[in-house]
Amino acid sequence: xxxxxxxxxxxxxxxxxxxxxxxxxxxxxxxxxxxxxxxxxxxxxxxxxxxxxxxxxxxxxxxxxxxxxxxxxxxxxxxxxxxxxxxxxxxxxxxxxxxxxxxxxxxxxxxxxxxxxxxxxxxxxxxxxxxxxxxxxxxxxxxxxxxxxxxxxxxxxxxxxxxxxxxxxxxxxxxxxxxxxxxxxxxxxxxxxxxxxxxxxxxxxxxxxxxxxxxxxxxxxxxxxxxxxxxxxxxxxxxxxxxxxxxxxxxxxxxxxxxxxxxxxxxxxxxxxxxxxxxxxxxxxxxxxxxxxxxxxxxxxxxxxxxxxxxxxxxxxxxxxxxxxxxxxxxxxxxxxxxxxxxxxxxxxxxxxxxxxxxxxxxxxxxxxxxxxxxxxxxxxxxxxxxxxxxxxxxxxxxxxxxxxxxxxxxxxxxxxxxxxxxxxxxxxxxxxxxxxxxxxxxxxxxxxxxxxxxxxxxxxxxxxxxxxxxxxxxxxxxxxxxxxxxxxxxxxxxxxxxxxxxxxxxxxxxxxxxxxxxxxxxxxxxxxxxxxxxxxxxxxx
Length: 542
Ligand code: ADP
Known about the structure:
Blueprint: H1 12-22, E1 27-32, E2 35-40, H2 41-57, E3 65-69, H3 74-85, E4 89-92, H4 99-109, E5 111-117, H5 121-124, E6 136-140, E7 156-158, H6 159-165, E8 179-184, E9 194-198, H7 199-210, E10 222-225, H8 237-244, E11 247-250, H9 257-267, E12 271-273, H10 276-283, E13 298-299, H11 306-316, E14 321-325, E15 332-335, H12 347-354, E16 359-360, E17 365-369, E18 385-390, H13 404-407, E19 414-422, E20 428-433, E21 438-440, E22 443-445, H14 447-455, E23 460-470, E24 474-483, H15 491-498, E25 510-513, H16 527-533
Parallel strand pairs: 1-11, 3-4, 3-5, 4-8, 5-6, 6-7, 10-11, 10-12, 13-14, 24-25
Antiparallel strand pairs: 1-2, 8-9, 14-15, 15-16, 17-18, 18-19, 19-20, 21-22, 23-24
Helix pairs in contact: 1-2, 1-8, 2-3, 2-6, 7-8, 9-10
The protein binds adenosine-5'-diphosphate.
């Protein structure tokens, strides 16, 4: 027997229509190099429809790829909807990739047009001759940067001029499985891999983010996505803003702690999301500032140290809300909210749960499996294995990529490359990334856990642990530590601090002090760069 309910495609025009009809007076605020700009959803909707007309005028094909090279701005949000709602596919380019990776992904996705912030043109322009399919470059004047003096005969379009001369279009997308957007992984090994989101997957992911036990964001919120719109869809917050009619505060190019706190204070931001390194910086800025409007700090992308979350709880009364995901998972796949049955636990134990990656969100299934045999492992909180996930907003393959087979199981689950444990309550803990774990004498040492313990030291700003070759144990941990300004510590101080906090055999074999932990294109610790830096390092105990 079939259900007797109406059917309708889950397409992004539904989200657009809501904002246009129900919340035309709500605002999208953008911090630019020349001040704060405000646009209502009503104006945004009108401009976005005209932008659909621009794509027609430029002759972008029916499902052509529309690339963006841009900060988080209202214009970027116009593109976020004009491309998919007119049937095209938005491709957000990560502005921090290496030049050759940008060339690779533009050509691999076959982008037809690139919309670029003027302040970023100097990064993109030197590459234009390497792009094989791009027919148009559209410049969005964000108050900074120069146009090239010699365009080599290429026509650079001006965004506002194109908009002014275009006619608004009606949307007509009926197939929910049509591609809406694509994003490439940041390519820590090999070339980036393309993930293609459908209208349906984005729709469902948006709902998951809005759910109370997801990110729990709604119309009354003022959302500050510090996480870039080119990094895994700004974790869904751009779509959530439009779907719910929440005020969006777009930070533009200045992601300094001071600028972020200024925006929280002046715009009365309620939910602000970014990677841990952002919140490490902001923590030092908030003394004496009014951030009382904040009620949620979603954070993920790499492990959120317990002490960082606790520092926020102690300072402003709200801990960090840890989430886990990947470009391949749209990205939201799990959120660490303490269950009601745990609220009577001592605060410190609750903080331990907040330091996990939490429970899979409704719609996402998770399991751990033995990396060699594929055997599914028990949820006992002890046994660790590769985290695998499945669900309607999880990728089933990469775009035109021969590496797909090795990334998915025979029964279609995504192999995440993360090692995790799952306890009997369903709380998942990331032990490490498979390539970062330190394999010492056949046992595993979690670099993530060691780092978190080291960073709990009040004089330490950042710490990253990498595996270094050892003649007896095969690998041993090396701690690379960045001190806070004006602090001094010795190797022995760090080891003494760790004594008792981690198992004895986990103690790093050496501690080196460095100026900065190298970061990836999305602000995570780049262990690969660090490993290169310390290739051939001989441990004192080796
Ligand atoms: P890339 O894989 O290129 O770094 P992603 O942004 O897709 O790009 O990164 C996904 C990875 O980030 C996950 O596989 C995981 O290793 C890490 N990650 C994300 N959230 C968390 C978290 N809360 N704790 C620990 N690691 C996380």
